[in-house]
Write the structure tokens for this entry.
Amino acid sequence: MRSESRPPLILIALAALVAAVAFQASGPSAAEAIDVDPVIWQLSNDYPETLPGDITLPISTIYIKTHDAADWMSTYDDHPAAVSGPEAIQDLIDIYGAQGIAVAAWFVPKGTDYDAQLQLAIQVIDSGVVALYADLEPFPGFCFLECKELAENFWKPLREQRPDAHLGVIYDPRPWWWEQSATAEWFSVADSALPMCYWESYTGQTPWGDPAGCVVQAYADLSVLAPDRDLAYLPMLQGNATASRFEEALDAAAGVGSDRVSVWRRGVVDTEVWELIDDYSEPSYTNCRPTLADGCLFEEMATGSAWLMQAGGRFYVGDFGLLPALGLTQDDVQLVDDAFLAAVPIGPPDGTLVTDEAGLDVYVVYDGTRFRMSEGDYAALGLDPETVATIPLGLLDQVPLTPPDFALLSEVSSAEEYLVLSGTLIPLDDGVFAALEALGLTSGVLNAVPDGALGDIPVAEISRGDADCSGAVETLDVLQVLQLSSGLPSGAICHQSADVNCDGLPASLDALLILVFIAAGESPVLPGGCEPIGSLSLLE
């Protein structure tokens, strides 16, 4: 039960807070597409007279600092409503609740008085706050050198004692502070991640000095810091920023799926930024990251290159002047981390039917290569001609007509199967598969392509003795022939050329003859009918 003996000064101050805002309707603006939660450091500093009251601002949740280590915030804030214990927190919950605003708490863990900090945190949670956030910073005045010990002796026991509480971590996202902060240890029992994206403070530190770059990279790094936890992502944005840069950060947060962010701190946010927040609507690309839908535009963080999604793959866009033809502008370009983009295939996936805007030819894509289709190929390949995707802006030219090395292909009506290497076809047999396995290249899938599609690709002509198909007879071929002769794994893809003396099997004598050829610069005399070492012959 709450005490009935509150100091009159505090009651008067709390009443004044209510009176300042009670005449307005409550709740965030209907135009708001993402919640922005302001952080309160000190009530005496974060309610300047130059800013309107909370009820006039688009606020649905506010973060109140409740304590520092084992000290209530009233030790550091002379405002009469500063938190001095659980009852003060409950009073603030009532005050803000009357305005339709929820209260979350945050604090600074530090020092080694683990038990006292644990009890204080439990009291805060039990007072009814919607969440408790730890401000994790590896600097003097914060957890500094005790971050790891605090995670083990305070944070994890707090989770054990309050398993249903929503716990979050406010942290410096720059990777050189992760170890000293023990960030991963704190995340191991947390529910939400609140990276401090203070781009003005990180000026000159790529990508952290960029509003969108910080938000996107910090999100990507959660796969390293908390790979086994599904954390809510609530980036803490810099409040003393221009509206345009703040909007960049908001767009980036919406783009990675955040439905709320926080802002440090209420007392420094300019009226222009509040107006932006009130009128904000999410960018066009909000659903691009999870869907990879056609028309989505991604910007690669490392290079600034732009990529357009079409037919399940990405295509390089070198000229932004092409975008208006698709009804797009640079505002539709979403900055993404390099790891995310690397996982998106370049060009359409296997089995995709594509054409260009002229529509004269239809191709099927396999192994990143397009093969021209004819009328009879659809049924033979089990493809639906109604599913042809149009690739705009001449981007179809980015899908090559020549298969890449190590593609495995056969024409749909033929029993012949080939490995592609250096623009030529090598007939597949057990020896080739064994060589691919030795090279760690066994993950390829044999794809059937339209009849006649391989007609323009020549069967390989290989120098006799060139066991690895490198284009030259050299010492490595000697080693590979010896491996073949002894039954050891070998990368001799062109194993047929290893039998230089034509006795039917690669043997140590073949290796010796190749070594003689290398030393002498010409082929030794071979049995009748055997072509000289180094001469070209078709693989069969």
